[in-house]
């Protein structure tokens, strides 16, 4: 099947996502079509490069010899120190303003290298080659780049669209099982906020998907790319509609930052966050009980996940107040009135949030009964 081309609108113009099996093999000609670069610099992580580096280098080399730079892709190192390290590596290799930087890796590599590309010499061209599900269906699309601070996730960054994204499901074959399962959280998220039919497909076919069935991935990856591309094309800078992509993320980012990015992979935190957001939606009178049950049941099927941490609710809430969506200290949540739709809510009672944080660990470890309420 020929890779699909999906166009994304940005303030800098349109860019393309080439999505499907064989997309990576077209790297040389797609990069050449972007125009002449003075030099090409590939930035990846050691583990990704060991798995697919030879293949990437072979396909990219058709356009120009490429320098390779490696960085640690641990979430704990997604910070300004790593940005400095990558930037200095590019400088030592002679990268100039007409150089092209190619990010090859998961969400951490894409976010860090994207921020480097946005800031190095005040901006150099960027190509994203996402190698995880999270990166392929979510983080590589839309131009959001950035790194973490001790106080919270992705608090320093820039909107910087790439020139091209090459999304090839074939590279997922070497993805560790834990990362594959966690990445499916973002797929479930897209179905909850925008595609009820895909949600039903996931319910029916999850076991097949977990076996990395090629036909299933050939359907899911482009469909999720299209959902994300449509949203970010309509709201590039997260001024309204794009907030729906953060379903579950207010909880998730708090879980990640309060555990110092050491307990959860991002998808795992999002999985917990979506279940908590479903419960909160019910408490706030937004989400129906049967939809809560369906969301929780589907999310559990991609587990197991690291346990919910023993962190006081007030600590998690304090972290949520640092979330990028918060306004004037008021926490905003993305909730779903029905599967396939979502919206932002800033009038959620704090006591409802506290109840969910108190009861979530025990309730999310067993089936949620119809008519559930944290009131008991």
Can you walk me through this structure?
- Helix content is 45%, strand content 17%.
- The protein is globular and about 55 Å long.
- It has helices at residues 27-32, 46-60, 80-92, 107-119, 133-139, 177-194, 196-210, 214-234, 249-258, 266-283, 289-300, 313-320, 350-363, and strands spanning 4-10, 13-19, 40-44, 66-70, 100-105, 125-130, 144-149, 152-159, 164-167, 333-338, 341-345.
- A hairpin with a 2-residue loop joins strand 10 and strand 11 (341-345).
- The chain folds into two domains: 4-174, Rossmann fold; 177-363, Dehydroquinate synthase-like, alpha domain (Up-down Bundle), CATH 1.20.1090.
- Helix 5 runs parallel beside helix 6, helix 7 (196-210) runs antiparallel to helix 8 (214-234) and helix 10 (266-283) packs across helix 13 (350-363).
Topology:
Elements: E1 4-10, E2 13-19, H1 27-32, E3 40-44, H2 46-60, E4 66-70, H3 80-92, E5 100-105, H4 107-119, E6 125-130, H5 133-139, E7 144-149, E8 152-159, E9 164-167, H6 177-194, H7 196-210, H8 214-234, H9 249-258, H10 266-283, H11 289-300, H12 313-320, E10 333-338, E11 341-345, H13 350-363
Parallel strand pairs: 2-9, 3-4, 3-5, 5-6, 6-9
Antiparallel strand pairs: 1-2, 7-8, 10-11
């Amino acid at each position: 099947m020929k890779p699909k081309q999906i166009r994304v609108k940005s303030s800098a113009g349109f860019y393309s996502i080439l999505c499907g099996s064989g997309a990576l093999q077209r790297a040389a000609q797609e990069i050449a079509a972007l125009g002449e670069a003075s030099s090409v610099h590939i930035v990846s992580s050691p583990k990704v490069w060991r798995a697919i580096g030879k293949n990437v280098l072979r396909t990219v080399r058709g356009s120009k010899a490429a320098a390779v730079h490696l960085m640690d892709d641990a979430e704990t190192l997604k910070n300004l120190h790593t940005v400095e390290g990558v930037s200095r590596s590019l400088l030592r290799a002679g990268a100039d303003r007409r150089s092209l930087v190619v990010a090859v890796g998961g969400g951490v590599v894409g976010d860090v290298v994207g921020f480097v590309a946005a800031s190095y010499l005040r901006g150099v061209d960027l190509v994203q080659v996402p190698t995880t599900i999270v990166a392929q269906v979510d983080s590589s699309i839309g131009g959001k780049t950035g790194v973490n601070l001790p106080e919270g996730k992705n608090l320093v960054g820039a909107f910087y669209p790439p020139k091209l994204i090459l999304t090839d499901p074939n590279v997922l074959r070497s993805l560790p099982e834990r990362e594959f399962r966690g990445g499916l959280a973002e797929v479930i998220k897209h179905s909850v906020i925008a595609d009820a039919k895909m949600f039903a497909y996931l319910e029916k076919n999850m076991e097949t998907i977990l076996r990395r069935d090629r036909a299933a991935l050939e359907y899911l990856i482009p469909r999720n790319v299209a959902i994300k591309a449509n949203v970010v094309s309509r709201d590039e800078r997260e001024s309204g509609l794009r907030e729906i992509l953060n379903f579950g993320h207010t909880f998730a980012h708090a879980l990640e930052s309060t555990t110092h990015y050491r307990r959860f992979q991002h998808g795992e935190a999002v999985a917990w966050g979506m279940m908590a957001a479903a419960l909160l939606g019910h408490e706030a009178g937004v989400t129906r009980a049967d939809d809560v049950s369906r969301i929780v049941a589907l999310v559990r099927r991609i587990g197991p996940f690291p346990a919910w941490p023993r962190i006081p609710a007030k600590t998690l809430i304090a972290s949520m107040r640092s979330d990028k969506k918060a306004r004037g200290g008021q926490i905003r949540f993305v909730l779903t009135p029905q599967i396939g739709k979502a919206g932002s809510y800033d009038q959620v009672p704090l006591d409802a949030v506290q109840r969910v944080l108190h009861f979530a660990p025990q309730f999310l470890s067993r089936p949620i009964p119809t008519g559930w309420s944290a009131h008991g």
